[in-house]
Amino acid sequence: MESISISTDKNLLDLDLIYDFIGRQSYWAQNIPFETLKRSIDNSLCFGVYDNGSQIGFARVISDNATFAYLADVFIVPEYRGRGLSKMLVSYIISYSELQGLRRWLLATADAHGLYKQFGFTELSQPDNIMEIKNADVYKNAEVGDSAANGTSE
C-alpha cells in the first residue's frame, strides 16, 4: 500500500467521485443536491484517500477543534474495500493534530460498528441525553434552498 496517501488538501478532492458515492450510492445522503454537498465539504475538515493521486476514499469532520467533533461521510470506493483502508483513514483522522484533546466524538452509522469500536466509539452511554432535529424531506426542496443560500432566485 505504498501508493496510498491521505490528505486534507481540498484542492485534491474529486467532487464528482464524492458526489457519485454520497449523493447516489450512500444510504445516509442519497439525492443530496450537489451544491449542498459542496457546501458541507467547504465547511468541514476533509480527508481524501488516494491511490497514486486518484481518489478512492473520503471522510469529513465537523468540529470546533476544542471540545467536539462529528465524523461524517466516511467511505472507501467498493473496488478498494477489504484492504484495511477504512481503518487507516479513521486512525489518521482520530490522531490528526487539530483534533486532539476533544472531549467528545460522535458519528451516526448503520454499519461498520466493528471498525469504529476499534477506535473507542461505543453506543451512546446516555441516549436519552441526545436529541435531534431530523428533516427527512429536506432535499426535496433543496434546489430552492440552495438558490436562496447563494443569493439567487429561480
Automatic annotation (TrEMBL):
Pfam families referenced in this protein's UniProt entry, alphabetically: Acetyltransf_1
- Domain of life per record: Bacteria
Gene Ontology molecular function: acyltransferase activity, transferring groups other than amino-acyl groups
Alphabetically sorted, this entry's keywords are: Transferase
N-acetyltransferase domain: from which residue to which, for each copy?
4-137
Instruction: Kindly list any coiled-coil regions of this protein.
Output: none
**Descriptive protein name:** GNAT family N-acetyltransferase
